[in-house]
Amino acid sequence: MSEDYAFRPEERPLFAGSPFSPAHPVGRRLAYLAVGMVLAVTSTFGNALTTVNSGSVAGPLGLYAAEATALPAIYVAINASANLSLVKARAQFGIPEVTGFLLGLYALTGLIPFGFASVWAAVLVRAASGLAAAALITLGIYYLMQALPPKAKPLGAVIGMGLSQLGTPLARLVPVDVLVDNGLWGLHALEVALALFALALILALPLPPSEKSPAFAPRDYVTIVLATTGLLLFCQVIGQGRTLWWSDTPWLGGALATAIALLAAAFLNETGRRDPLVHFEWIGTWGILRFAAVALVMRLALAEQSYGAVGLLTLGGLNNDQLRTLFVVVVIAMLLGIVAAALTLSERRLPWQILAAALIIAAGAWWDSSATTLTRPAQLILSQALIGFGTTLFVGPALLYGFLRMIQRGGDHLVSFVVTFSITQNVGGLMGSALLGSLQTVWARNASNALAADMLASDPQVAARISGGGAALASVVADPVQRAAQGSGLLAQAMAREAAVIAFNDTFRFVAMLALTTAAFIFANIVVARYREKSNDRS
């Protein structure tokens, strides 16, 4: 874009730091569309490679599987809190400068493990990935908006947020052997390549310029440090609580108490400010609380796919390499969800789109609730396709719904809205896995106790099962007593698997009920809003 181009008033951005929106020729629009789609998908893909392969990543880093869950939690905390500073940083320094710096930082930290492979190097990479992802999602939306005519620009937010959801299923299509080759060099090389590729794209096709202005106030930095540290501790508690178990690990309680104190201090720092970084009084209004609650609960329900279905199949001994067909279908379903959201988009339909997404997710979760130990990916294709479709049908319209509410209050509420939405989606996803995982663990113990109570040694069927298990080992275990003990062990393992499957089915039913309750709440709000509109028209 020429530096001396004279922008018309209608081409000016809504917010400082956003690019101007001039009329582009068709070829340039298509280029912006392609780059925006790539940036949106790339934003979450790098971290998803670590998240979906956390068990494989743990070994080369010398970590237990439970300890490896700290890495995704670091990404979530940094990504959720990044917009506290990024929104104002873009306004003060410019979009290309901020995003280019963060991508360069991501690439440089990605090189550290090649020379100094350690847990701390992995922590730095995950933190840089969280910052870069927050910048890339927004940048991808801006690129998509440049490709669209003025009246269709809201589609950029719907498409961009929808495409950012593809990172996790696409990461499951990458062979594990490629990532863990020679330690974790494959994983690190892929992350560095993604960062450099994204940087090359935005340098080759820059956005139109934006207006810059001083944005930061000294007290902003206090809030940013307090909130980021608090979220880091909170996400560590949520991320590791399920694996270390909540009541068995004392440091989890200390970390949670410290996190609450830090977040409360950030809140107090913002209270009474003339120009606060975060408008808590607006976030505390009924309309925004309702929006945040629905967005959070829906993200909890969406953990059914990342934890529930994958956990069930992992219980059967499958790994990512055996789930590729399933997640190819999920990716296709997500793309169809984006198309459906875009084709049906209008301000009045936004609540109906979110309602439909909740019902679709409920149907998919309920479908999974009849799983058995013999369930394999082929039996989950339809249910997981429904959940994938519901994911992208929900997330874009939800973002746009909240954005429109923010516009009514003014551009100074942008940070408040972006941070609220980011926390509901990122921390909400982490909380969803923790909640479902904890429930499944408790229900599996209860089911195991119930099954054990019915298995009496005097029962002929139990005795026959133990004898059969021991007989299968006759060629390698000569001692009859040892064979009987081994047979009892095999029966206990089978019982544990059955109990785990029963618990997963209960978890799927819980998700279905959660989604149905959310749908009922949304419908009730639609009815109330319509009633108020009619009452206002009559008066």
Number of helices: 20
List the uncertain runs: none
Secondary structure tally: strands: 0
Radius of gyration over all CA atoms, rounded: 25 Å
As a percent range, the share of helical residues equals over 70%
| Sheet of most strands | none
Mean pLDDT, to the nearest integer, reads 81
Give the H and E element order.
HHHHHHHHHHHHHHHHHHHH
Estimated structural class: mainly alpha
> What percent of residues are in strands?
under 5%
Distance between the termini: 52 Å
List the helices and strands and how they pair.
Layout: H1 26-51, H2 54-61, H3 65-68, H4 70-93, H5 95-115, H6 119-146, H7 154-164, H8 167-171, H9 176-180, H10 185-204, H11 218-244, H12 250-270, H13 280-283, H14 286-315, H15 324-343, H16 350-368, H17 377-409, H18 414-454, H19 460-471, H20 480-538
Helix pairs in contact: 1-6, 1-7, 1-10, 4-5, 4-6, 4-11, 4-18, 5-6, 5-10, 6-7, 7-15, 7-17, 11-12, 11-18, 14-16, 14-17, 14-18, 14-20, 15-17, 16-17, 16-20, 17-18, 18-20, 19-20
